[in-house]
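Subject: Protein record for review, amino acid sequence with backbone structure tokens
Category: Structural biology, sequence-to-fold work with a learned token vocabulary.
Format: Residues in single-letter code; tokens as whole numbers, each standing for a residue.
Body of memo: The sequence and its backbone structure tokens, given next.
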Amino acid sequence: MSIVLDLGGLGRADLAVGPSALSELMASLHVLAEPEHHPEAVGWTARAAAAGDELREELSVFAPLWARFRCRLFFPRALPPVAGLDEELSALAALPAEEFLELVAPGVLGTNALSVPSARELRAGTAAAEDYARRCLRRSYARGELARQLVAAPLELRDRLLAVLRAADAAFFAEDWRTLRPALEDHAREVRRRLTARSPAEVLTELLPTAARVGPGERVRLDKLQIDEVKVAPRPLVLVPSARVWPHLTVKHEHPSCVVVQYAARGTAPAGQLTLRDLHDRLMALTSPARMELCRHLLGEPITTSELAARLGSTEPQVSRALRTLRDAGLLRSTRDGKLVRHRLATDVVQRLGHDVLATVAR
């Protein structure tokens, strides 16, 4: 599954790169809400989770907004993105009821598979609003309750959300952002420098390890749990580097203002991220009982092909084919010792496989 961004017709002035404190706060709140997706952040999560009970309860109320779907409210809607949280929260505080509804209602529902009524239809007591609240409730009690409050009093919910975000900033995010912001801004400057010499599609495929150029033109395929093709122009494209978003890659394209891609900045994600095809090949290499038996011998010590064949009662060509499959999947390392070539299982790769599966599925 993938989402394809068609960048054709996108000029350099239509592309902005920069960190957003509000988007980073949202990514941080997602880590707190779903720490099992982010074992790499366990230390930070423990510190941030030490916030008071009242704040934790309020964060749980709004957690559907920063679940997998990610509410559009937390992403830039103008160029360039603003890196200061105070400015971004002030802009949210100034949103009229109808615009707040438009941005938040899809996030409460939390899926692209179901349509959301227009903000004008989502008025308390209307059939459209009642149907919307029922659909949210079918997804979860928390979503249903949030939908009911949104329809009944959108501005009250806006102010309550702003209070929660400010409390989270005071409790843990402000200190974290002071540390993260300089590196993210340095990264953004480097990306902007690259854009002066390369096309947006080239830069995007360099930035995202699981991205690839496809077909003719400026089209980039992103490995996502979505099937979609998005024509970006005439809207601008905003790239938002993040230190907390990994292993997720967030693409928000439903709003007319701009298309946003929030991605893990350089140095914030483990090296060697797998594509879906790489993961499939690695898992398939271990499904064969014969290759699994081979792995047991390769685990103990470096060993030659001929010795493996003798141990297994097999021929050297058969063993060579099995070794090639493991090597192609990245599960085997071979070293030359004079005239001999010795093989050994890449134990670090095997140990990381469970985490690779989780990261690829979560993307």
